[in-house]
Prior knowledge:
This protein is an alpha/beta fold. Helix content is 39%, strand content 24%.
Amino acid sequence: MANIAIFASGTGTNARKIIEYFKENANIHVSLVVSNKATAPVLALAEEHGIEQMVLSRRRFYETEELLESLKERDIRFIVLAGFLWLIPEYLVRAFGRRMVNIHPALLPKYGGKGMYGMHVHRAVKAAGEAVSGITIHYVNERYDEGGIVFQAACPIDPEDTPEDIARKVLQLEHQHFAPVVEELVRNLNE
């Protein structure tokens, strides 16, 4: 059994899809949800599904390695960032290397970096007049959105699409692809 942790800062729509996807899986189990916000709805989602929750303070995340010890104690094999907005510290990147992924709501390397998340990305894509957008699932390193690309999927953008329309199309891709890609990566850990 491979235990995975989901790190999220907000409502957890991707976290919900991942939790539901692995609910009946005999080999992969979502055993921990970590958030940097005590009021994040994703924590209530985890509780609803009987998954342990952990809230991080900035100090605990960046100034100590307590989190790493907690992950080891829970035998966490893989980390999924699903709307987690803090930059990942070097100690965690070093420990989880190619066992930690993030999803970005654009086709990297375009529209990535600090401050480029959620609607900020979709507004930038619209303002640039792009004909396509999409998702990028990538490994996590110490810089925003610069880790190696694992998977991308694209969707067309119509000239009349608003940033909200783009967001809906991209979210559909996230929900369709994120959990299966995570499953494949976790399976490959054991090969």
